[in-house]
Design a protein that fits this description.
By secondary structure, the chain is α/β, with parallel strands linked by helices. 44% of the residues lie in helices and 22% in strands.
Amino acid sequence: MSESAQRLVDVLREAGRTISTAESCTAGGLAYEITRIPGASACFIGGIVAYANEVKTTLLRVPESTLARHGAVSAEVAEAMAASCRELFATDIAVSITGIAGPSGGTPEKPVGLVFIAVAGAAGVVGRRFDFSGSRTEVRGQATAAALAMADAFLADG
């Protein structure tokens, strides 16, 4: 993962752009991977670990109606988290992750390994659904790696 994080930090630094994160199931893993890279302070502004719904609604201003209608693990919540995080930290892009890492907490409709990742920027918000497998640690690692890749692709697209 460090190669992906290095590439992302390099791209951000070279462009003079900034990034922030809003994480649930990865509990700061994405922020950790980014800040492991020397020089990340030039582009990483901060992050929020929004594990509880109350943090999603109070700090990230995710509407309670969105949580009630779609659930915390949904594209709608991931997109709201990313958009609000970008605004709160005044960054060029923000990345959010919400999902079910397991080993419990899944349902037939939302199984363990279901993760939604969103990236927000000036052009809008792009979100994606992922269905990962493996242990809790593996799901979290896969989600972090996917978020790094999505942020990199988002920057490459403009």
